[in-house]
Predict the structure.
Amino acid sequence: MADGRLGNLRALLVIAAVVLVSASQPARVAAQSSGVVSERAIKAAYIYQFTAYVQWPEHRFERADSPLVIGVLGMDSFADELLRITQGRRVSGRTIDVQIITQDDALAGLHVLFIADDVSARVRALTARARPESILTVTDSADARAQGSVINFLTIDQRVRFDVFLDQAEQSALKLNSRLLAVAEHVHVNRP
C-alpha cells in the first residue's frame, strides 16, 4: 500500500515537472514530434519544485520579500532553461532569480546551487563553500555523496530521478520536507 502511494507521489512530481516545462515552452514542446521533453528541461523543473520543499534558516533572507536565488555553475544552456521555467513564478511568495556563476564567484547570496556535470571535478570544493552558507546543492555527479551534495540527479531506465543525502542537508542547516524525501529514489542517512 505504501509503495503504491509513493509511486503515485513520484508520478505526480514528474507530471508537475513536465507540466511546468510544457507551460513555459509551448512552442518548443509542441514542435517536438516525439512529445519527449528534454532531460535538461525536466531537471530544471525539478530544481524549481525542490525549492518548495526546502526550509532555509530565517537569516538566509534579508527581507520577507527577498528573492530566492538559484545559481548555475557550468552548462549555461541549463540556466537558460531554468530561467524560462521560473519566469513569473514564485516560491513561498518569493520571486526567483537565476544567476550564472563561475567557480570563483561568492556563494553567499545563493539559496540553491546547481553544479553541472561538466564541472564535476570541482564539486567537493564548491559544496564545502556552500555548506556554511546553507545553500541547497544539487549536482549531476557520479560520486555525489563523497562530493558533499544534498541532492543528486541520476538517470534510471531513461527517467530522471534523484537521491537525497540527509547528512549533507543537516550540515547545511536545511530542513527537507518529507514529501520531497518520499519521491527520492534513495534517501541516504548518515550512519555513525
About this structure: The chain is about 40% helix and 25% strand.
